[in-house]
Design goal:
This protein is mainly beta. It is about 15% helix and about 35% strand. The protein folds into two domains: about 1-45; about 55-104, no CATH class. It has one helix at about 70-85; strands spanning about 1-5, 10-20, 20-25, 30-35, 90-95, 95-100. The protein has a four-stranded antiparallel β-sheet with strand order 1-2-3-4, with no helix packed on it.
Length: about 100
């Protein structure tokens, strides 16, 4: 499906749904947003077979705290580890996720 986010339309999948809207996971960026049902539109066929640009992964032994957030020290350590193996542009914490944005 296509869903709006910050002025643009992006590919997404519904992660959860209730009467207020849907939690959409944007498959090319990895972020989540709540979108009202009326704003969700079918994805044109020519975009259905394109691979997602974001990849969901976990680091062995690294988990969020009991309130489902990473503390600052954990976030900084993940950033250090990732900078050793990839070109990290930005690290964003959203809910229980850390989004690593890589440079092209």
């Amino acid at each position: 499906m296509l869903a709006p986010f910050e002025g643009g339309w992006y590919r997404g999948i519904v992660d959860a749904c209730n009467e207020n809207g849907a939690v959409v996971a944007f498959i090319d960026y990895g972020n989540l947003a709540v979108v009202i049902h009326q704003q969700l539109i079918p994805l044109p066929q020519q975009f259905c077979d394109l691979p997602a640009w974001s990849v969901c992964c976990r680091l062995h032994g690294v988990t969020p705290t009991e309130n489902e957030h990473f503390n600052q020290l954990a976030a900084e350590q993940i950033q250090v580890w990732c900078c050793r193996c990839c070109d990290l542009q930005q690290l964003i914490q959203q809910h229980s996720w850390l989004h690593l944005v890589l440079k092209e």
